[in-house]
Every structure is written in structure tokens, then in C-alpha cells.
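Kindly review these C-alpha cells for lecture notes.

. . .
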Amino acid sequence: MSYRLHLLHKLTDQESQRAYLAGSGLSLSDSRCLGAVGAFEPLSVNDLARRALLDKAQASRAAQSLVGMGLLLKEDCPNDGRGVVLTLSDKGRTAWRRTMSLIQQRNQGIFGCLSEPEQAQLSTMFDRLIAHARETAAPLTKP
């Protein structure tokens, strides 16, 4: 079962990468970061990494890329002299709406073979599996 989950992950990531590049000009990680900031703004880079399921270095690079494209605004964090706060720019909000539409299309492409009740049931099962994995995961330690 874990092999099939991994296979589905890889197949959908490959197609998502292609779809996001064609539809928005953004990479998969940039699209995920834009989506996370749009859904949960304002975010620190650490919060962005957690929300987009990236490591901090990947999130930082994606954020810098999106700032460079004028899609995100980066301001100093008032509570942390070294931290920053990320929000969408006006241009970023437009790109975020387009990206969310692409995500909805991708979800329909992936899960459209299931009926609405099956999709709801699968969603509930995913939530249970994710919660269980978080509860039983060993804490990350640095060597």
C-alpha cells in the first residue's frame, strides 16, 4: 500500500509540475508556496516551510523567487529582528487565484474518477492517516 501511495504521489507531482509551469509559469514548489501564503498569510519562512511541506532552505529560496517576481511582499518581523513576514502583493493575489484554479483542476484530474461520496470518504481517511502518522512519527533529530 505504501508503494502505491508513493507511486501516486510521484505521478501526480510530475503532472502537477507540468500543469503549473504551463498554466502559471511557476514551478511546483513556487506554486505550493504561493498557495500557502495566500491561504495562511502572513507567514514567516518557517511557517511557510511547514505549510508547504518543504524544508526551510527550499521555502526560503521559493519565497525569494516569488518576491523577485513581485508576487510576495517581504517585511521585517516586528517581533524578531532576523525574521521576515511574507504576504501576497496585488500581483501575487491575482497569481494565487489562478494557481488555486489550477489546483482545483489538478484535484479533479486526480480524483475525478471517484464519486463525490468516495472522494469525501477518501478525504476522511487521508485525515485519519495523516493524524496517525503525526502522532506516531519519531521526532527529527540532527546527527
